[in-house]
């Protein structure tokens, strides 16, 4: 019950976030309409203010002598002549006399005063005086300037350009909350492939695969290395991790466009490659090794390697160039046709982080309760995550195992 309430609270929070940033984006994209509405409101406010002013004295200068609205009281007229009669002409004559006295005083100071200062006075200042100022003085000043700490510039983030990203991910997180709420029902699982197809088309081919999970991981490491401007995508990744802990790995099995591409490329369900228990252990070792390798590479190179080497981006944007890009794209397509989600199971660094969240005791995940080892669910699990009455951490909460109608499967417990 508490989990259901929390799921609805999360849904409402992201609904409010969606509305907030949608209004912000609308005001930015339609400034003329917003300006027109503001002018209309200002004009209405001016009319109300004018009516209020008519009913009150306001700043009227004759309001003290006024006896009412119909009174004809006014300020007595003034010609302005009496105002300027007080300052007489003697004032200006006194100023002119003092000025003439000062002029005579300066005349008394003759040119002899300047002639007394002969050239010998300036000759006394020799070149030795300037030679006494050595280079050490300037070196000391340089040391002082070097000792002053440089002012640290404040990191400025243009949040406005991320408004569309906030809107898109708010919709995704709302979908995640809805799926988690109705995960126990059968009808929600009929929408899994349409949701994956929509994610593949929009976030993949329309937006060019970006932002994606690899960009989030890349920026998270660069953020830890000191690049504070790359804070937006790590925040989104943190939200995905928290929601995975609360609601399960729905992101991987239902929403990720990288996983959707591999899902629709897979065409070899009969061979069941890499579904054994030993294969799962090998894939986990490879995934941890690639996680460490990617982390070292990004921290050392201090660049965004995703847009340069990511084969998913090359496929979505149809911009593969060079033998390395074609090689990576070919490996991805061929492996995805033969093996179910090879990238998710062996390489994805975000998948590695989400796998570790399932180890937490309070994490939401699929478990086997009272398993009789009928092995009906093994046939439906394409990830090969069910072995020895346990569900492996690679489970993506796709819900395919529920089709086996096994009584021991407990969904999202």
Outline the structure in words.
By secondary structure, this protein is mostly helical. The chain has a domain at 182-361. It contains 20 helices and 4 strands. The protein has helices at 2-29, 31-55, 90-108, 112-116, 119-123, 128-131, 135-147, 163-181, 192-206, 213-224, 232-247, 250-255, 257-265, 277-301, 306-309, 311-317, 323-338, 342-346, 349-357, 376-380, and strands at residues 367-368, 386-387, 390-391, 409-410. It has a two-stranded antiparallel sheet with strand order 1-4. A hairpin with a 2-residue loop joins strand 2 (386-387) and strand 3. Helix 1 runs antiparallel to helix 8 (163-181). The protein is globular. The model is unreliable at 51-56, 68-75, 80-89, 91-96 and 109-135 (pLDDT under 50).
Briefly, what is this?
Helices cover 60% and strands 2% of the residues. The protein has helices at residues 2-29, 31-55, 90-108, 112-116, 119-123, 128-131, 135-147, 163-181, 192-206, 213-224, 232-247, 250-255, 257-265, 277-301, 306-309, 311-317, 323-338, 342-346, 349-357, 376-380, and strands spanning 367-368, 386-387, 390-391, 409-410. A hairpin with a 2-residue loop joins strand 2 and strand 3.
């Amino acid at each position: 019950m508490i989990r259901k309430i929390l799921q609805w609270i999360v849904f409402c929070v992201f609904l409010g976030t969606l509305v907030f940033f949608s209004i912000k984006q609308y005001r930015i994209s339609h400034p003329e309409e917003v300006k027109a509405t503001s002018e209309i409101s200002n004009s209405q406010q001016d009319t109300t203010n004018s009516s209020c002013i008519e009913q009150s004295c306001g700043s009227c200068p004759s309001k003290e002598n006024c006896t009412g609205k119909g009174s004809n009281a006014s300020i007595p007229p003034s010609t302005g002549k009496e105002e300027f009669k007080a300052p007489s002409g003697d004032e200006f004559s006194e100023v002119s006399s003092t000025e003439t006295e000062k002029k005579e005083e300066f005349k008394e100071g003759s040119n002899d005063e300047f002639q007394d200062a002969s050239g010998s006075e300036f000759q006394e200042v020799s070149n030795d005086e300037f030679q006494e100022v050595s280079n050490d003085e300037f070196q000391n000043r340089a040391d002082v300037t070097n000792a002053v700490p440089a002012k640290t510039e404040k990191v400025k983030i243009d949040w406005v350009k991320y408004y569309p990203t906030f809107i898109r991910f708010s919709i995704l997180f709302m979908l995640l909350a809805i799926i988690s709420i109705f995960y126990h029902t059968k009808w929600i699982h009929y929408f899994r492939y349409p949701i994956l197809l929509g994610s593949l088309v929009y976030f993949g081919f329309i937006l060019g695969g970006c932002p994606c999970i690899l960009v989030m991981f890349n920026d998270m490491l660069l953020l830890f290395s000191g690049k504070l401007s790359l804070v937006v995508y790590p925040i989104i990744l943190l939200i995905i991790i928290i929601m995975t802990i609360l609601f399960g790995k729905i992101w991987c099995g239902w929403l990720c466009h990288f996983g959707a591409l591999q899902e629709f490329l897979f065409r070899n369900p009969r061979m069941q490659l890499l579904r054994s228990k030993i294969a799962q252990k090998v894939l986990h070792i490879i995934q941890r090794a690639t996680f460490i390798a990617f982390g070292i590479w990004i921290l050392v190179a201090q660049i965004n390697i995703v847009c340069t080497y990511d084969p998913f981006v090359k496929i979505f944007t149809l911009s593969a160039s060079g033998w390395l890009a074609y090689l990576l794209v070919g490996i991805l397509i061929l492996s995805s046709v033969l093996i179910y989600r090879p990238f998710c199971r062996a390489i994805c660094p975000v998948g590695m982080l989400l796998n570790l969240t399932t180890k937490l005791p309070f994490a939401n995940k699929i478990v086997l309760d009272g398993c009789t080892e009928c092995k009906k669910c093994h046939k439906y699990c394409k990830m090969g995550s069910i072995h020895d009455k346990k569900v492996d951490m690679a489970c993506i909460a796709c819900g395919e195992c529920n089709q086996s109608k096994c009584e021991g499967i407990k969904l999202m417990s």
